[in-house]
Amino acid sequence: MKFQAVKGTRDFYPEEMALRNWLTEAWRRVSLRNGFVEIDGPVLEQLDLFRVKSGQEIVSQLFSFTDRGGRELAMRPEITPTLARMVNARINSLPRPIKWFCIPRLWRAENPQRGRLREFFQWNVDIVGSDDVLADADCIFTAVDFLREVGLGPKDVVVRIGSRTLTTAALRRVGVGDAQMEAALAALDKRPRVKPEAFAEMATAAGVPADRLDEIRRFQDAPDLPAAAEALRGEPQTAEEIQRIESLMTMLQNMGAAEYCRLDMRMVRGLAYYTGIVYEVWDAEDALRAVAGGGRYDNLLEVLGGPKIGATGFGMGDAVLSILLEEKGKLPDVSARLDCFVVDGVGQRFFESVHQYTGKLRELGFKTDYSFKQTSLGRQLKEANRRGARFAVIVLEGPKIGVKDLETGEQTDVPAGEFLAEPGKYLK
Amino acid sequence: MKFQAVKGTRDFYPEEMALRNWLTEAWRRVSLRNGFVEIDGPVLEQLDLFRVKSGQEIVSQLFSFTDRGGRELAMRPEITPTLARMVNARINSLPRPIKWFCIPRLWRAENPQRGRLREFFQWNVDIVGSDDVLADADCIFTAVDFLREVGLGPKDVVVRIGSRTLTTAALRRVGVGDAQMEAALAALDKRPRVKPEAFAEMATAAGVPADRLDEIRRFQDAPDLPAAAEALRGEPQTAEEIQRIESLMTMLQNMGAAEYCRLDMRMVRGLAYYTGIVYEVWDAEDALRAVAGGGRYDNLLEVLGGPKIGATGFGMGDAVLSILLEEKGKLPDVSARLDCFVVDGVGQRFFESVHQYTGKLRELGFKTDYSFKQTSLGRQLKEANRRGARFAVIVLEGPKIGVKDLETGEQTDVPAGEFLAEPGKYLK
User: What total of structural domains would you count in chain B?
Assistant: First the structure.
């Protein structure tokens, strides 16, 4: 019986796995240097955790089942509800601000498309316990710090920054009521991805009066913050948010991330729970889906049984990012390499010594292997080359060790005792 | 609404996560230096993949469900079927021997007990494509190399080595037929964990004649290889296996792992698919479950639709291992630490500079943070200490930078330009 991988999942053979580790390590390194600490939760959560956060409709997008104890469980489609649950459980003992990152594997029961898989990884960076726009700036800077780290410049990617607060005010201004607000925001979120007529249809269906759609477009297309403010002139509670966005842009400037960042009031985000500044990372040519997205979600912890407490953060999946990195030629060479390959220098006579040296070198931390085949020197060296070994450690009579540099072909013979006393001297 | 984690799963807060990463990194480092390359598969596989390998009874131990396309899917309870599927899919292009490791997260729908969780991690090390006992030796050495790496000595743990081939011969010798062999092996596997009377009952129920049970005990309790051979005298096909085990012990001796390893014919392993040498790692006091287990499984790839090809390997879970490491005091201090904490030296006047230095230092790779609160120097330094920062980088008039060593309390003031030209000179 022959088996295939499940649709929308990936097998990670050594090369794909090495790239996945490279990406994961870059995410981790950048998170740590930005002062975040790593956490993780279980893959399985109570289905209700996602239902309470996102409503009944989320259930159709999840892999879920009832266990033998009658509990409804789901495979996590995102980490934020878990993070909120974990913060709530220790709300009184965790020093604030809480700066957490994680790299969860996530599942969505969707039809696979380019950049959208049923099983994927997502880097999450969150700050809980600060209402200050400094927290938003810290998250956005961390995203930019990563983009720069992997070689994506401001000509490759752009962080587009919008505001739920201002967008909500713009919608209220044209007559959208509270009951329709979520649907109207969802329509606006889709605008960059659909044709103008389709957008008009969706927006009016969601309660935006047709004759005031131009006002919304004018607000969303504002080239800068004063223009957006002008489009909202006289709206209550917008001045403070405009001030926050101005501070945000100054901070990003001071931290050295401004060249990546651009105000863009078309950024709304799809999920219902955002409350303030929101942003997405896009490839500069708009050819792919968003690489990352996030923003402020000041109500979520309260919804999930905790206190009202400020929170902000973003998620970056591995699927779209990998496509972009490949297109830009930014994926590194990750071929597996050995430090050394221990070789029987006279064919089948020193096989026991080969075992001794192999054991010793591994224990000392050198990536070491040897051939299972007791064969000629030439064949063993061929295997050493195929395995990407830097050096061959050739066991010779004497006892001596021939250290052969497999790049230059140069070989140095040393007495075995000298080699063993300090192998690092020869294997570098 | 307040939520709990699902029974048998774990929340990884920063400290638990740091320990998990420490363990994962040790597994990875040791695997790489032993010449293995990393792979991974999807969490979700077709339910049949596990059913074909382990029979219908496995289904009750899995988390499984039917997706909207009508496919029966399961969350992987082990990685070996996935590994076999992946090897089979590229059987003609993968150079042999295939030396793969992985660190999958696994799920079992069992009742949680000490050392046994519903969601856990397991290090897997496998060599496919070699019938040679060298491959078994390489896997066992890798396990020992890891145990030594994390500070567990031969007084803490022991690798007990048995043989399915010899155990099967011993059972056949006392009259157990092919039809009862699997049940009889399963009974023998349980012997170290049950009372003598319970074992006698299980073994006879599985087809071992009561009056010949002593012969089985004598074989299993053989203190060394000659004694085990003596108990099997005249049995066909045992001489070759005894020779293999002898070679294995010599290789482990030569590689420097023998002090951890002991022959023990009570080792049988629970799973049906083992075919030759098998082994388990136990804590020396036998107080816990097995820390790791593995062996040769030469038929599995064929069962899963591939060719008949030699394979051997082991798995080591994180749950029992973590208990053992904690009991032995071998868990490291993994507190989160920052390289530096940037501080406004005159309180609220240099906040923009704090942002500039923070951005710059992070980009250069220093783990850097600063206080979101614009507050006094003393309070900022307190936060720096709480965050485990090694240095405070204090922005002073001039512009100057005061580099304060937070362990010794010593402070060096340098002109800002000099500091920025080479921060690494001061932060070490």
Answer: 2
